[in-house]
Amino acid sequence: MSHRITLIPGDGIGPEVMKATVRVLEATGVKFEWETFMAGAEAFERYREYIPKELIQSIERTRVGLKGPVTTPIGGGFSSINVELRKRFELFANFRPVRNLPHIPTRYPDIDLIVVRENTEGLYSGIEHEVVPGVVESLKIITEKASTRISRFAFEYARKHGRKKIHCIHKANIMKMSDGLFLRCSRSVSKEYPEITYGEHIVDNTCMQLVMNPYQYDMLLLENLYGDIVSDLCAGLVGGLGLVPGANFGHECAIFEAVHGSAPDIAGKNIANPTAVLRSALLMLRHIDEPEAALKIRNALEKVYRTRDKLTRDVGGKAGTSEFADAVIEEMQNTNSEPAAAAGVPTQKV
Length: 350
Ligand code: NAI
Description:
Blueprint: E1 2-8, H1 14-26, E2 31-36, H2 41-47, H3 53-62, E3 64-67, H4 81-88, E4 93-99, E5 112-118, E6 122-132, E7 135-141, H5 144-161, E8 165-170, H6 178-190, E9 197-202, H7 203-212, E10 219-222, H8 224-237, E11 247-249, E12 254-257, H9 275-287, H10 291-307, H11 321-334
Parallel strand pairs: 1-2, 1-3, 3-12, 5-10, 8-9, 8-10
Antiparallel strand pairs: 4-5, 4-11, 6-7, 11-12
The structure holds 1,4-dihydronicotinamide adenine dinucleotide (NAI).
């Protein structure tokens, strides 16, 4: 059987890290039929559409996307393609597991955090206007429906996967109505899950706490903007943005993408780390019921990190993006017969 997947290479480092990832995925022996589409500025140049309708139709058909980063112009220009796709397909849950890889020096070993971010509203609703010259208003939309839905997603995940604690992260001391509603919804859902310890922390304090003692947290539940910022902070705890995967889940479909952006500072140089996209692809493999292939890649990936001589620059090595992918593929071929490790790739079906 072959899996049809919508592939969005993205721009900046996107095409490099996606090419490396696709090579590794294909080396598992699982069969894929990729439906590949541009998005963003490149797509506009060619099709006069930032998100071509063929791309939308493809996701409607395949229901699974693997996406590279897409550049969003700063302070003007078109709206974020990422935000548009999340809203268009109601990909309400942004799921970001944060774990160390072997032998990557970090301030803390054995980090195991899950960040769950509401993905469809908050300040990312993008409703802004100039009231009078020199005064701009930006609306933060928080609804009971979306807040309850994301809270339930987090608690259901915790219940299914034996997680112990969820902290709802907010700023309801200042944004009493909007964050207050988010908080009330998560508090109310938490009552249905008495086996999971529920806590609440203010977002600025949370950033400090994460840097001082990340082990006090297990899962973090956040509205959109705080989730975006705090997940980059969490990536820093385990070695940087080149390592941390992500997934966007809706009821109908899912799009898998790394936490990082298009990294224009290193694009086109074959030095970007494809690990984050590769780990996002592992989440995808679990989602499409290919857990063996996911474990194969995970074991090979960990071996390459343990051996250390084929790592990319961001984690202290000298290898290029493609060389790193070659090493993972070679490791997979060498270790085919070894038993697969039992844990580490979260499953998340919605
Ligand atoms: P960024 O994540 O692209 O880069 C931040 C820093 O991390 C840079 O120094 C970069 O070199 C490094 N980095 C990121 N990924 C790396 C990798 N795989 N290997 C090695 N180093 C890596 O964030 P930035 O610069 O704030 O954003 C650049 C563009 O990306 C913006 O247009 C932004 O809107 C877009 N973006 C897109 C996302 C998406 O498509 N999901 C997510 C985040 C940002």
